[in-house]
Write a structure and sequence with these properties.
CATH class of the largest domain: Alpha Beta
CATH topology of the largest domain: TIM Barrel
Largest sheet: 8 strands, parallel, barrel
Strand content: 15-25%
Helix content: 25-40%
Strand order of the largest sheet: 4-5-10-13-14-17-18-19
Number of domains: 2
CATH architecture of the largest domain: Alpha-Beta Barrel
Radius of gyration: 24 Å
Shape: globular
Distance between the termini: 27 Å
Oligomer: single chain
Length: 550
């Protein structure tokens, strides 16, 4: 890594940085804030196999195209890694996993080889978990163990479409879905009221017409002995809300059930711009209500007073657009009364720029146009075919920029271990979805070095919300020094970061933050330093230092 980083953190209230006046306060427990969270995103099927007995379900034995079938990852495997402390060591305080609801049973073949719903976005039944991913007892254990480690669980919500039609998976009734109008994305209408691609039935989310349940769901629930319970819950939901029994409201009810039953902390909403904006306002309303009720009924399990987290995938949304997404003929605000944040598709381009350009831009937007909301920054993902570092040759730079840029960070599984994003023999997005490279973590020294770097930055970010949620201000251009300040109620966090510093002896002017005699600790090299004459002199072999009050 060519860049050099200094992070100096102290719980200090600075009355005036320019006058070098320091008012020292005691260290406090850092609050969790979604705006600065370190969110880890993984494909449930591709992370860790915790139960070999559920690798094949519903007779899914057809040979699939490369990386287009189920690979064995499951909820139990994720729970195991949480228990082992893998995520805690990374400083991860929230995990988003791909949908775990029951998928279509068959496979499709669109010229890429047979493909199963391993990714979770091809729903067959919103009320059941897919056995390949695990059971509801597995999910309950996952949430409980994650919460015991201070880690929030974010599930993935699909309201826009069902799974494709196969020889063994029937299409939903016509009053539920449309199948004859494929999107051309030329304007709002041709992006929303249409199927995303061929053979992906589009839920009629605009409709308020009451519909009957699909017959196959009725028969399925009866065979599983839960029909009466499901119907009673639906009647209670529609009676409480007054909503018509239209398709979107059934799905909203089914999705919010995961809050009621398991106490999940958030949803990432899929294909947001392909669904009317009022749908997400309705979804938020019901998520907020359900989460509030869950907290009332489970006071001993409540982690904090944060509201339910909703982050949306508005494909190609850029943070530069502020609150608006432009369809060409219509601009839509997906923030107010809908999402706390949107996934930022612009960050992979911004990451090509220098640090100050990136940091000042994001801080300015997040504390002006998006004040009170957030953004989710990523450099690689499951469906972006042009990641920042596809060949994994700039891994240290990528992790450093991802974890230090203002906003919520989305670490895609394997960003911390250089999991390959280019796999020979794959077609399309399958190349982004290889199984987690656990062998490299055990045996490859370069991978171990990257992982160690990520752990130190990640833990520091988790301990200091100023890094992600604070206001950014440059102190000096050369050497490049800046600070981040974050205040919430009586909590204050000030973070100072410096880049382009020499390996070996580093003489740093910290007089605006520390006073002479302060003992500070470099968490990266595990060295203690005493401030003298406003300077911190650090002699380490690393190109990063992370300093905090001892």
């Amino acid at each position: 890594m060519k860049r050099l980083l200094l992070v100096i953190t102290v719980f200090t209230l600075i009355s005036c940085v320019q006058h070098k006046e320091v008012v020292k306060v005691e260290k406090q427990q850092a609050p969790f804030v979604w705006e600065g969270a370190n969110l880890y995103f993984l494909l449930t099927d591709r992370f860790n196999n915790g139960n070999l007995l559920n690798d094949v379900s519903f007779d899914r034995t057809e040979v699939a195209g490369k990386l287009r079938g189920f690979e064995g990852g499951d909820i139990q495997g994720l729970t195991q890694k949480i228990q082992e402390g893998y995520f805690t060591d990374l400083g991860v305080n929230a995990i988003w996993l791909t949908p775990i609801v029951e998928q279509i049973h068959g496979a499709t073949d669109e010229g890429t080889g047979s493909t199963y719903g391993y990714h979770g976005y091809w729903t067959r039944d919103w009320t059941a978990l897919d056995p390949n991913f695990g059971t509801k007892e597995d999910l309950k254990q996952l949430v409980e163990i994650a919460h015991s480690k201070g880690i929030r669980i974010v599930l993935d919500a699909v309201i826009n479409h069902t799974g494709p039609v196969t020889e063994i998976d029937n299409v939903f009734p016509q009053d539920w879905v449309r199948t004859d109008n494929q999107c051309n994305y030329q304007n709002y209408e041709s992006t929303v009221s249409c199927t995303l691609v061929k053979n992906l039935p589009d839920i009629r989310t605009e409709s308020n017409d009451e519909v009957e349940l699909p017959l196959y769901l009725v028969e399925k629930w009866k065979s599983e002995g839960r029909y009466d319970q499901e119907m009673a819950e639906l009647e209670a939901f529609f009676k409480r809300t007054g909503y018509p029994k239209a398709p979107r409201f059934y799905i909203i009810k089914w999705l919010t059930d995961y809050i009621t039953e398991f106490g999940i902390d958030g949803y990432r909403a899929d294909t947001v711009k392909h669904t009317e904006e009022y749908v997400w306002q309705e979804f938020k309303k019901e998520c907020d209500y359900t989460f509030s009720e869950w907290k009332k009924n489970n006071s001993e399990k409540v982690l904090d007073n944060n509201s339910f987290y909703l982050v949306g995938e508005v494909y190609n949304y850029n943070i530069s657009n502020g609150k608006l997404f432009d369809f060409g003929d219509k601009k839509v605000n997906y923030f107010d009364n809908s999402f706390q944040g949107l996934i930022n598709f612009e960050f992979k381009y911004d990451a090509q720029k220098d640090y100050e350009t990136i940091f000042s831009k994001y801080s300015n937007i997040l504390h002006t146009e998006l004040n009170g909301f957030g953004t989710l920054n990523y450099l690689s993902s499951h469906d972006d075919g042009s990641p920042f570092d596809a060949k994994r040759v700039r891994t240290f730079e990528a992790i450093t920029k991802l974890l230090l840029t203002p906003g919520t960070s989305q670490m895609y599984y394997g960003d911390e271990s250089a999991r390959p994003l280019v796999i020979d023999g794959t077609v399309g997005d399958a190349t982004l979805r290889s199984f987690m490279n656990w062998d490299d973590i055990k045996n490859n020294q370069n991978t171990k070095n990257l992982l160690a770097h990520t752990k130190k930055l990640g833990q520091f970010r988790a301990n200091h919300p100023a890094v992600g949620a604070g206001t950014h201000q440059m102190i000096t251009k050369s050497p490049y020094l800046f600070y981040r300040s974050f205040y919430k109620d009586t909590f204050q966090d000030v973070v100072v970061i410096g880049l382009d510093l020499p390996i070996g002896i580093k003489t740093l002017d910290v007089s605006k933050i520390f006073k002479d005699g302060d003992l500070i600790h470099d968490a990266y090299s595990n060295l203690d330093i005493k401030v003298e004459n406003g300077k911190a002199i650090i002699d380490s072999k690393y190109n990063l230092v992370l300093l905090e009050l001892k």
